[in-house]
Give the backbone structure.
Amino acid sequence: MKNLVFFSTLTAGSLLWKSGAVFRRGRVRRAAETLGRKPDPRLAVYHQGGIGSGLMLAPMLAALRRAKPGCAIQLYSHQEQEGWFLKAGGLVDGFFVIPRAGRPAQMGGPAYDALLSAARTYDGARAAGGIRAKLKIGFHHPVGWHARSGLYQDITIPISYQEHEVQANMGLLAPFGDVPPVPPEVLSDDSPLFSGGPAPAVRAGVAFHPGGGKGLAWKRYPLERMIEAAVLIRKELGADIFAVAGPDETEEARVMADRLGQGSQVFRTTSSLVDTFNFLRTVRCLVTSDSMMMHLAAAAQCPQVTLIGPTNPYLSGPWCGPSLCRIVSHPLYCSPCYKLYSGLLNCINRHHLECLDVISPREILEAARSLCRE
């Protein structure tokens, strides 16, 4: 669950950290409601979060396209690849990459200055230079950080975190009128990303993703046990094995490929999420932990076996139907905890990350077998 706001050059009013004024909740809500009334040809979406969270914007952006067909949608994000992917999918017209600087108040650079300057044209924010506000992130957010920084003062758009992040994103369209139905898929079949035609009738191989990047090791299934699962799948399903890796997991993928030897290969995601998207459309299934690759597979309509430990699949799991996903999870007394989020706290279980360790390689095999039958 990440920060997400809308504003246009005439209707800013959701998120400007460099300002000195704080509007009360009612005024902020009224400012947000004007989004549906002002005839502005430009609309911006600001997203703070990882690529996986960015991929879960896709259904909402598609609905926004339909609700405001005359608007050019601009994305402001920390992730360049997220921008390229959403642009390739026809969901945004352009994007700016905002440099990461630890705290939002320290964001700088021409893109942020342009964002701030454009937002100041909104009548309600012009004099003060913007509105300082908060979007609720949820139970795993480091609230104490906000108390020390004093950057956030109020909730602008109420979001329920008893629902999936895709559903919460769709709820942000309320200022535009009736919230459209939540689609069952990340990308509709008419997305330009599917312009190459349907996926191959016969898919080849099973892909394994060894986990998220740096700082996300707390969500990774143990590499040794993933290798055991790959050996079982190759032996019992007769499948070639692919190790799929982003820049931060290249070493783990190489170790996996070396251990598996002949009949395995590494597909490294280097510069293009679109290339990886197209690759995932060719494999029988993907085995992954909670990661960006999980959301990319859902977008590609690639069957997947998802290994969930300290997170909650009902809030941020893959957005796809049961025919495309098998979630393997053993919730414990402490699950979901998100306790290792950003390395803030240690795992409270005396068996470190037991929620992942209890998943057996044979369970992964059986889940993959059931997917490959369908």
